[in-house]
Write a structure and sequence with these properties.
five-stranded parallel beta sheet; Etherase_MurQ; SIS_dom_sf; Rossmann fold; about 10% strand; about 50% helix; about 270 residues; carbohydrate metabolism; alpha/beta; globular; lyase activity
């Protein structure tokens, strides 16, 4: 049986179609992604709960992946220290070929049977941690062997795959099987599969950060003040939360204490 991700596109003779016809058809296919994710939310919730429990007990989160999915996981992890003030090393990505080769399409590295576990082992992976494999096909050797080794060492595992009953899902304690159907261009899993992976990565990391207390209300109270835009956002956030009318006063407090959360805690402590 041909895996869903390799099945022929529902569209043909693409080279004969107009720009309008192509974009309309791609958009129709993209509409299917959110629905596919909705159908697996119970699986996603189980995975997120497992990640939160590990991190609350001093563990770490590791994504392992190759190709588009692996690169998307790197981008997700890169954002977290700035957006949520999360210390580096808690949320991690292991990309086939290395994260420093992000812009290189090292697809041949997905067949490496040893790199994933070697890299995890070098990071002193332990039973306190959780490892989530990302593979559209559900059979990527780099991911599969990494998860196999994790299970052999009693390390919790999860996965995000796009085919049912895959061998990678069989190695996951918390599998997420999001079935988006054949791709618009046959086998081009950077399309719907990649879109689903991006949406799931956003959903997982954002929910985990909220559960870890790194959001208050709907605000990024731990955001790093890395540029003028974020500084201005932080100042206005602090003004609203602390009921400070003077912009410069709020900015001075924010610069002094580094984050909105720290500034608010200091103000509350001084008030008490």
């Amino acid at each position: 049986m041909i895996p869903i991700t390799e099945q022929s596109s529902l569209y043909d003779n693409l080279e004969t179609k107009s720009v309008e016809e192509l974009t309309s058809a791609i958009n129709q296919e993209d509409h299917k992604v959110a629905k596919a994710i909705q159908e697996v939310l119970p699986q996603v919730n189980c995975l997120i709960t497992a990640i939160v429990n590990k991190l609350k007990n001093g563990g770490r989160m590791f994504y392992i992946g190759a190709g588009s999915g692996g690169r998307l996981s790197v981008l997700d992890v890169i954002e977290l220290p700035t957006t949520y003030g999360l210390p580096k090393g808690i949320y991690n990505a292991v990309l086939a070929g290395g994260e420093d080769r992000l812009i290189d399409a090292l697809e041949e590295m997905e067949d490496d049977l040893n790199e994933a576990w070697d890299r995890l082992n070098a990071a002193n992976i332990s039973e306190k941690d959780i490892v989530v494999g990302i593979s559209a096909s559900g059979s990527t050797p780099f991911v599969l062997e990494g998860l196999k080794q994790c299970r052999a060492h009693h390390i919790a595992t999860g996965c995000i795959v796009s085919n049912p009953d895959s061998i990678i899902a069989g190695q996951a304690d918390y599998p997420v099987e999001v079935l988006t159907g054949p791709e618009f261009v046959t086998g081009s899993t950077r399309m719907k599969c990649g879109t689903a992976q991006k949406m799931l990565l956003d959903m997982i990391s954002t929910t985990v950060m909220i559960q870890l207390g790194r959001i208050e209300g709907n605000n990024m109270i731990n955001v790093k003040l890395i540029n003028d835009k974020i500084m201005d956002r932080g100042v206005k956030m602090l003004m609203k939360k602390a009921e400070i009318d003077n912009y410069n006063e709020a900015k001075s407090l924010l610069l002094q204490y580094g984050t909105v959360k720290n500034a608010m805690e200091k103000l509350v402590k001084n008030h008490d």
